[in-house]
Amino acid sequence: MTNNINTLVLSNLPYISYLNDNGDISDELTGKIGLYAIFNYDKTLEYVGYSRNLLLSLKQHLIRQPDKCYWLKYHVIERPSRSILEEIKQKWLEENGSLPSGNGEEESMWTQPIDTKTTMNDEDKQQYNSLDELGKIKLLKKVARRYEEIIKNQLDERGVKFEVRFNPKLKEDGLLDLKT
Hints:
By secondary structure, the protein is of the alpha+beta class. The chain has 2 domains: 10-111, GIY-YIG endonuclease; 114-176, no CATH class. 38% of the residues lie in helices and 14% in strands. The chain contains 6 helices and 6 strands. It has a 4-stranded antiparallel beta sheet with strand order 1-4-2-3, covered by helices on one side. A two-stranded antiparallel ribbon has the order 5-6. β2 and β3 (45-51) form a beta hairpin. The model has no long low-confidence stretch (mean pLDDT 94).
């Protein structure tokens, strides 16, 4: 694949279904370094990023934003440099004409672990404030597991077949992120 950034135009790359017929993301992206653009169901650009492991990053995004990951375009780079990756990313963002929300006000929702504390109901919040440290950890784990089930149900509805395992240590802080 070419690394000529002047000819690497996002609109020239084909749309690829986020999930293949087997309910997985293409294994050929395992360990590959490159850039990617994620599109919603209507093929509206949601996020542009780059990664040292395309498959892992795409799985993380699907977990974090399952309702916004339907199509993707990507380009693998054999000899990457952060400056080249950043330059191509900026070109793709400019080509879009407007900044996608995933690269703007919603960026943390695409790039950071899911903070399940924001899903706590009034009862959870009241209970949390009355607990000691160990009790708070237990409650945060319970809230995280509850939200984990919601995510897994959304992924099941999308037809995802790959195993989804969250980092158990992060659950103690009320966070969900894929175990790597």
